[in-house]
Each structure stands twice: as C-alpha cells, then as structure tokens.
Amino acid sequence: MGKKQLSHINEAGNAHMVDVSNKISSTRSAIASGKVLFPKDIFQTLTSQDFLGPKGSIIQTSIIAGIQAVKKTSDLIPLCHQLNLSKVHIDIHPSGTALHIICKVKCTERTGVEMEALTGVAVSALAIYDMCKALSHDIVISNIQLEQKTGGKHDFSR
C-alpha cells in the first residue's frame, strides 16, 4: 500500500480541487450520523410537546434544513465538487435524552457523497439547536461522523 496523501493539497502545498475527469461514474452512497444532547428536563419538555415549538415541528424543520444543506455542500465546503444527487434521506429520532440524526445520500457520479452526508447531519443538528436554544443553551452537538460509504476506490464501514 502506497503512502497516503492529502488529496486537496498539491505538490507545492497549495489547496486545489481534485481532478475527477478521468474517473468513471458509479453509484456512490454515504451515511453519516450525529447527536444533539439535551439536559434531561429540557428533553422531557420537548418530548411532552411532541417536539413542536413556536417555530413549528423541530424534527421536520431540521430534516428540511439538512436536505437543503446537502444540496448546497459544494457552496459551503470550498473544494467539494457539485454533484447531481439521486437521493437524500434524513431521519431524526429520540434516543435517551438526545435526538439522533442519520443522513443517507446517494448519487451516480465520479466522486463520493461523504461530505454531503456529514453536512446534512451538521446542519440538521444546528437547526435543532436554533429551534431549542430559547429553552437552554446547554445543548451539545456531538459525534458527527461518517458511518459508511460505498462506491469509488474504497468502501468504508464504521
């Protein structure tokens, strides 16, 4: 196995966008996850209100925010390629005193969708925080990570 190198840094040490023009398009997918942790009393309040706040459904609004973010990843992360996405699915569900976020993204392209899946989780979590911060600032966004990717040179599963 050869020496691993940063793909977005060229020989001169400068940032650059990876050239994917010689790669073959293939089906690629990625799954990312994360959590939004709440103080116990705040989580109980949210649960008793069915996660509905003055701004509407906390979960549904956060899912939409995450989907929008996935579609804008190349605008947010400077060296990401624009991708024609096939599918974006975000699931947010209670777990203990947290909301657990899972984002699945799929495309048929020359490069993968890991950054899109991670961005979907991150922005969903930020939207949850935004909608709940009036109740407490002691909310923690945690454990945003890639769970799985398929397609391309290497598959990955945590």
Give a verbal description of the structure.
- The protein is an alpha+beta fold and 158 residues long.
- It has a single domain, classed as Alpha-Beta Plaits.
- The protein is built from four helices and seven strands; from the N terminus they run βαββααββαββ.
- It has helices at residues 40-48, 58-71, 73-76, 114-132, and strands at 26-37, 52-53, 56-57, 85-95, 98-109, 140-150, 156-157.
- A five-stranded antiparallel sheet has the order 4-5-1-6-7, covered by helices on one side. A two-stranded antiparallel ribbon has the order 2-3.
CATH class: Alpha Beta
Fraction of residues in β-strands:
25-35%
Shape: elongated
Question: Do you know the CATH architecture?
Answer: 2-Layer Sandwich
What's the arrangement of strands in the largest beta sheet? 4-5-1-6-7
Classification by helices and strands = alpha+beta
Uncertain residue ranges: none
CATH topology: Alpha-Beta Plaits
Helical content band: 25-40%
- Counting DSSP H or I runs of 4 or more residues, the number of helices is 4
How many domains would you count in the coordinates?
1
Largest sheet: 5 strands, antiparallel
- CA gyration radius, whole angstroms: 18 Å
N-C termini distance:
21 Å
Which whole number gives the mean pLDDT?
92
CATH-defined superfamily? Molybdopterin cofactor biosynthesis C (MoaC) domain
SSE topology string: EHEEHHEEHEE
Please count the beta strands (DSSP E, at least 2 residues each). 7
